[in-house]
Amino acid sequence: MSVTAIKEIIKMLENPSLIKIKEEEKEVLENGDIVLKRCEKCGEIIDYIHEGYTMTRDCACMRSYRVQARLKRFQDLSITDRNSKSDIFSNSKKITNAEERAIYEELYNYANNFNISKKGYIFSGGVGTGKTFLANCICNQLSEKGFSVLSFSLGAYFNKIRFSTDEEEKLIQAVKDVDLLFIDDLGSEYINRENGKMWGEEKIFRLFDERYRTGKPILITTNLDAGEIKEHLKVKGVDKIYDRLKSECKYREFNWESKREVLK
Ligand SMILES: Nc1ncnc2c1ncn2[C@@H]1O[C@H](COP(=O)(O)OP(=O)(O)OP(=O)(O)O)[C@@H](O)[C@H]1O
Ligand SMILES: [Mg+2]
Ligand SMILES: [Zn+2]
User: Fold this and answer.
1) Ligand 1 binding pocket includes 132 (Cβ within 6 Å)
2) Ligand 1: which atom is nearest the Cα of residue 259?
3) Which numeric CATH code is attached to 78-262?
4) Where in the chain is the domain with CATH 3.40.50.300?
5) Ligand 1 within 6 A of 83 CB?
6) pLDDT tens across the length of the chain (264 residues)
7) Residue 153 Cα to ligand 2 middle (Å)
8) Atom of ligand 1 at shortest distance to CA of 83?
9) InterPro entries attached here (predicted)?
10) Does residue 263 line the site of ligand 1, with CB under 6 A?
């Protein structure tokens, strides 16, 4: 759906009077239902009489609005900018080697056949290898298809929740509700473990644990390798988070030169 179409729907639903409904002459359906109102925009039935009762249902515009409103909620809560204009599969260039092409193909298919019971992914590799770009392509493709995405780095997450339990509860609820959770640049955050202060560890544990319980996928980009992730995510010295992550996510290595130089 195009951005203009979405804007139009949002405008319409913010001002329901803009939905023009034609009062039809009585139209009797095959099952005996009587049509009272149809949406002029999509033509679907809104009000009808079924076995003597007047019923109301959402038309395609309203359903679409609900999806858009839901997506917008997660978009507003997301802390990273997913560059929805530029980071899209059709803009991808410089796929120089077979290994990288295979990953792009795999993830292109993943995005196009996505559902919430799919596994997640960990993209691990050096700086500038295009991990965030590809993750954004997936997220933007999913949004286009009506799936919700929530994205942030753990550093930004910490900053949001540090002084506000309300903010934490709001984000945790979103973490549980959203279709795909994307954590960018895992390992760049500082986890305070000094003097027995477990604040960071506890917050990370809660975040992952709440997400695991939903069974829905997590997408992670990181400069850390598997061993380093395991070490980094230890909680009270135990690798509970990584252990679970290993079985929930497919691990893909971005083993090539930085694109930052090449693309300049
Ligand atoms: N396939 C691609 N097509 C076009 N541009 C790309 C592609 N992959 C990456 N880029 C561009 O290359 C630059 C580096 O990519 P990106 O930021 O995704 O790297 P990264 O692996 O996330 O790096 P870091 O580890 O530092 O976070 C960005 O400007 C990005 O837009
Ligand atoms: Mg990145
Ligand atoms: Zn409609």
Assistant:
1) yes
2) 12
3) 3.40.50.300
4) 78-262
5) no
6) 556 666 666 666 665 555 555 555 678 999 999 999 999 888 999 999 999 999 999 998 888 888 888 888 888 888 888 888 889 999 988 687 899 999 999 999 999 999 999 999 999 999 999 999 999 999 999 999 989 999 999 999 999 898 888 999 999 999 999 999 999 999 998 777 665 568 888 999 999 999 999 999 999 999 999 999 999 999 888 999 999 999 999 999 999 888 886 555
7) 10
8) 31
9) AAA+_ATPase, IstB_ATP-bd, P-loop_NTPase
10) yes
The single-letter code of the amino acid at 27 is E
DSSP annotation string for the chain? --HHHHHHHHHHHHSGGGS-EEEEEEEE-TTS-EEEEEETTT--EEEEEETTEEEE---HHHHHHHHHHHHHHHHHH--S---TTTSSGGG-----SHHHHHHHHHHHHHHHT--TTS-EEEEEESTTSSHHHHHHHHHHHHHHTT--EEEE-HHHHHHHHTT-HHHHHHHHHHHHH-SEEEEEEETSS----GGG--HHHHHHHHHHHHHHHHT--EEEEESS-HHHHHHHT-BTTB-HHHHHHHHHEEEEEE-S--HHHHT-
Evaluate: CB of 185 within 6 angstroms of ligand 1: yes
The encoded tokens of residue 12 equal: 């319409």
Q: Which contacts qualify for 196-200: CB closer than 8 Å, 24 or more apart?
A: 198/235, 198/236, 200/158
Task: Collect all residues with Cβ–Cβ distance below 8 Å to 50 and sequence separation of at least 6.
Answer: 33
